[in-house]
């Protein structure tokens, strides 16, 4: 499904199956009404003193046997169609999400994404598999039954259908406030789901920092808002539904038909035998009140779900090119007049020029919020620059084939993500065909091999199931991953929180192994790690305010030198 497609586009590929399924349901509608007609015809004939009309009896029997079979054929067609749509939407959604900027994922909650990929898609396909084919059946049953009654006695049909018509009009012409309430109800339900996910993710922090309070105020607010909205919606529904529901209830219609039936029979407007089908079909007539509201709800629910999918598909994809580069390792990266703003009007990187010479380590330091992490995340295209360009050997990264970009540029960030797979598979991510030997060699170089062997299942242990790794250990696994991928350029966001000294020195050893013979751009949060860098750039408010080697900058006695003054570095001058 392409971005911006609507419900019609969504249903187009399965339209034939849905049409056949709907047609079979119309056939089922005939099968539902036929036994009622048969009972009526048999009774009328017998009351008239005639012989049993066996044709009607057999028609009823056949209808009772065949209808469930046709119904299951119809459902297997519509469910097959809905399964196909579900598969197609999810696959397209995942393909699309793979092309949106990586930074977009930081802005959506896991709950929102899960709801979209899982519940919204399932709800839409439930509608397609079940509700859409059942709608024509519902309509056909109502139309057939009422047409048959009108054929017997049009005037009496009008009289008994009157409460249903009034109830339908009342239900359809709801005051507009109901839509607002329902919209608010959906909004608060979404808010509650997102807050619940946030709370689940941050529970440990809440427990530690909020003492006995186990819930975030925002979560409690979300519960309050949703409860209020739920009660308001239910009260409004109840108020607006009371009269129509009474008028269209089966018991009311039965009493109404009986009373008017007696009047009609007493005044010779109706023969007693003709009252039978009306009494028998009271139930179908009373349900007809839901026909229009059900169809309206069906259409609006399908539209709302299709719109929410459409919105996800509308997230702009990163424009990609197909350029590849010669397989060389000595490539030069250049930031030329790079400007970036997350939100319009607030520049985070300001006309920045920087060249990363092949095989050199460039360290970025500067106060918190100066734009260091943002700068490094522009290179692997978490977001695209809003001005200027980043080039690899003179080619704008926006024109490079993304696979080529990630072959050239590896990144190790602080927030290491592990997949729920074996340790070996986690290391093998960039190169699934890598041999066990290469995986082990990478782990050895990343100083994590011995730790992995401490596990009974070793490299076959599933992370999160058989084994959990500490922050420093997880970081070394992600370094092993990058060592195996062996990209010529590496972006490194050094961990802010120093692990214990032993783990810290192992991470440093692993980074040294990884950085060998590579062009490295690193955000340094601790000054000791930048001393040997080939170039150090000092950032402030999105600009480079100093650049040089450690010795040059110390001799200059400027901002960098100032950071080394006791007490400054620890207050966050270096990040
Ligand atoms: N996803 C985002 N959306 C909007 N603004 C953001 C986002 N990420 C960062 N910022 C803002 O951009 C500015 C630069 O942030 P950045 O994280 O790049 O700084 P930093 O120098 O790496 O800071 P630190 O050393 O504290 O990590 C900050 O003002 C920050 O609030």
Largest sheet: 6 strands, mixed
What is the C-level CATH assignment of the largest domain?
Answer: Mainly Alpha
Provide the domain count: 2
* Total beta strand runs: 10
Portion of residues in beta strands equals 5-15%
Return the average pLDDT rounded to an integer. 82
Helical amount: 55-70%
How large is the radius of gyration? 35 Å
Main location: membrane
Organism: Rhodococcus artemisiae
InterPro entries: AAA+_ATPase, ABC1_TM_dom, ABC1_TM_sf, ABC_transporter-like_ATP-bd, ABC_transporter-like_CS, P-loop_NTPase, Type_1_exporter
Family: Belongs to the ABC transporter superfamily. Siderophore-Fe(3+) uptake transporter (SIUT) (TC 3.A.1.21) family.
Key features of this structure:
about 575 residues, alpha/beta, ABC transporter transmembrane region fold, 2 domains, 6-stranded mixed sheet, 4-stranded antiparallel sheet, about 60% helix, about 10% strand, elongated, disordered C terminus, ATP-binding
What does this structure look like?
The radius of gyration is 35 Å and the shape is elongated. The strands form two sheets. A six-stranded mixed sheet has the order 6-7-8-3-9-10, sandwiched between helices. 60% of the residues lie in helices and 10% in strands. α3 packs antiparallel against α5 (110-152), α7 packs antiparallel against α8 and α18 (471-485) packs parallel to α19 (501-515). It has 575 residues and is an alpha/beta fold. The chain contains 21 helices and ten strands. It has two domains: 7-314, ABC transporter type 1, transmembrane domain (ABC transporter transmembrane region fold, Up-down Bundle); 333-571, Rossmann fold, CATH 3.40.50.300. It has helices at 7-11, 15-47, 54-99, 104-107, 110-152, 154-172, 177-209, 217-247, 250-266, 272-280, 282-287, 291-314, 372-378, 402-408, 423-427, 436-445, 449-453, 471-485, 501-515, 550-556, 559-563; strands spanning 333-341, 347-356, 361-365, 387-392, 395-396, 409-412, 489-493, 519-523, 535-540, 543-548. Adenosine-5'-triphosphate (ATP) binds next to α13. Its main location: membrane. Keywords: ATP-binding, Cell inner membrane, Cell membrane, Membrane, Nucleotide-binding, Translocase, Transmembrane, Transmembrane helix. Residues 333-566 form the ABC transporter domain.
């Amino acid at each position: 499904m392409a971005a911006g497609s609507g419900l019609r586009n969504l249903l187009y590929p399965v339209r034939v199956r849905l049409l056949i399924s709907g047609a079979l349901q119309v056939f089922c509608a005939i099968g539902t009404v036929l036994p009622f007609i048969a009972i009526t015809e048999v009774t009328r004939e017998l009351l008239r003193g005639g012989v049993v009309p066996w044709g009607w009896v057999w028609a009823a029997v056949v209808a009772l046997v065949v209808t469930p079979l046709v119904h299951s054929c119809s459902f297997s067609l519509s469910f097959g169609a809905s399964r196909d749509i579900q598969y197609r939407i999810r696959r397209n959604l995942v393909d699309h999400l793979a092309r949106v900027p990586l930074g977009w994922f930081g802005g959506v909650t896991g709950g929102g994404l899960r709801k979209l990929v899982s519940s919204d898609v399932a709800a839409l396909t439930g509608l397609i598999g079940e509700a859409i084919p059942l709608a024509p059946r519902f309509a056909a049953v109502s139309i057939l039954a009422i047409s048959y009654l009108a054929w017997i006695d049009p005037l009496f049909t009008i009289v008994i259908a009157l409460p249903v018509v009034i109830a339908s009009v009342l239900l359809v012409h709801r005051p507009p406030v109901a839509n607002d309430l329902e919209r608010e109800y959906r909004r608060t339900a979404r808010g509650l789901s997102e807050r619940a996910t946030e709370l689940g993710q941050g529970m440990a922090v809440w427990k530690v920092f909020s003492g006995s309070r186990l819930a975030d105020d925002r979560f409690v607010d979300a519960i309050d808002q949703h409860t209020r909205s739920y009660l308001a919606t239910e009260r409004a529904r109840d108020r607006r539904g009371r009269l129509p529901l009474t008028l269209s209830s089966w018991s009311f219609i039965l009493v109404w038909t009986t009373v008017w039936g007696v009047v009609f029979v007493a005044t010779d407007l109706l023969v007693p035998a003709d009252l039978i089908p009306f009494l028998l079909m009271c139930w179908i007539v009373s349900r007809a009140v839901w026909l229009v509201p059900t169809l309206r709800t069906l259409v609006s629910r399908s539209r709302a779900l299709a719109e929410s999918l459409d919105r996800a598909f509308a997230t702009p994809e990163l424009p990609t090119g197909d350029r590849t580069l010669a397989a060389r390792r000595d490539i030069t990266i250049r930031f030329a007049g790079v400007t970036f703003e997350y939100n319009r009007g607030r520049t985070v990187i300001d006309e920045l020029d920087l060249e990363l010479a092949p095989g050199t380590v460039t360290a970025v330091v500067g106060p918190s919020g100066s734009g260091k992490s943002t700068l490094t995340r522009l290179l692997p295209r978490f977001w695209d620059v809003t001005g200027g360009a980043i080039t690899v050997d003179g080619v704008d990264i926006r024109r490079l084939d993304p696979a080529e970009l990630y072959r050239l540029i590896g990144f190790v960030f602080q927030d290491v993500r592990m997949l729920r797979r074996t340790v070996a598979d986690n290391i093998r991510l960039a190169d699934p065909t890598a041999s066990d030997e290469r995986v082990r060699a990478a782990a050895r170089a990343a100083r994590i091999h011995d730790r992995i062997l401490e596990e009974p299942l070793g490299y076959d242990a599933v992370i999160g199931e058989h084994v959990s790794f500490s922050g420093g250990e997880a970081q070394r696994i992600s370094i092993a991953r990058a060592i195996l991928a062996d990209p010529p350029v590496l972006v490194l966001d050094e961990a802010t929180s120093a692990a214990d000294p032993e783990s810290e020195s192992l991470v440093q050893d692993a980074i040294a192994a990884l950085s060998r013979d590579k062009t490295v751009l690193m955000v340094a949060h601790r000054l000791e790690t930048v001393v040997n860098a080939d170039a150090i750039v000092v950032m402030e408010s999105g600009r480079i305010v100093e650049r040089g080697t450690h010795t040059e900058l110390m001799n200059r006695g400027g901002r960098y030198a100032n950071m080394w003054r006791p007490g400054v570095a620890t207050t966050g001058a270096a990040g």
